[in-house]
Amino acid sequence: MEPLCVVPARRALVLVIADKADVLHENGHRFRSERLDLRAPSVVRLRRYVRTPYRHRAALSRRGVFIRDEHTCQYCGRSAENVDHVLPRSRGGAHEWENVVASCRRCNSRKKDRTPEEAGMALSRAPFAPRPTFWLLVAVGGVQPDWDDYLRDALSTS
Ligand SMILES: [Zn+2]
C-alpha cells in the first residue's frame, strides 16, 4: 500500500458504498440522514490498484520549504521568515528543492548575492527534495494520528 491522496470523508464514504474501497480506520464521526447512519472513514484502501505515474517529485512551494526545514533558519537556527536560494538566482541558481532553504531575515540580507562559502555562512544541512508523497503533509498541514502508520515512509525526511 502507498498513500494516494487526502479526500473529504464524504467522498471516501461514497467509494466504500460503491464497493470501490474498504475502510481501514474510522474517525468516530457519523453521517446521518433519515434513512442512513454511517460511520465516517478516516483511512480507506482502494480495491483496485491505482498506478500513480504523476509527481515523481513533490512540487516546490514556499510552504513546503518551511515545513521541510521546520520553520528554522538553516544558517543560524532562528525562526525563519524567508526562502533563500543557496546559489543565488542572479548567479544561475535553480529554483528547486536542492537550492532553497528557509532562512531568517537577518541571514538572508547578510548573505546577499553570495554563496554560503563567500558569505562565511554554513548550512545546518544540505537541502534535499522530500519524498514524492510529502505533498500530502503540505496539502493538509497536519496528519491525523491514525494516518501515521500509512504515512511513515512518506513523511520521513532521510
Ligand atoms: Zn538566520
TrEMBL record:
> Which residue numbers delimit the HNH nuclease domain?
60-109
UniProt keyword annotation of Phosphoprotein present: no
| Gene3D superfamilies registered for this protein in UniProt | 1.10.30.50
What Pfam families does the database record attribute to this sequence?
HNH_5
Traced from the root, the source organism's taxonomic lineage reads: Bacteria, Bacillati, Actinomycetota, Nitriliruptoria, Egibacterales
Question: Which keywords label this protein?
Answer: Endonuclease, Hydrolase, Nuclease
On whether Heme is a keyword of this UniProt record, the answer is no
Q: Which InterPro entries match?
A: HNH_5, HNH_nuc, NA-targeting_endonuclease
Q: Which organism is it from?
A: Egibacter rhizosphaerae
- GO terms for molecular function, please? endonuclease activity
The identity of this protein, by name, is HNH endonuclease
Can you tell which superkingdom this protein's organism belongs to? Bacteria
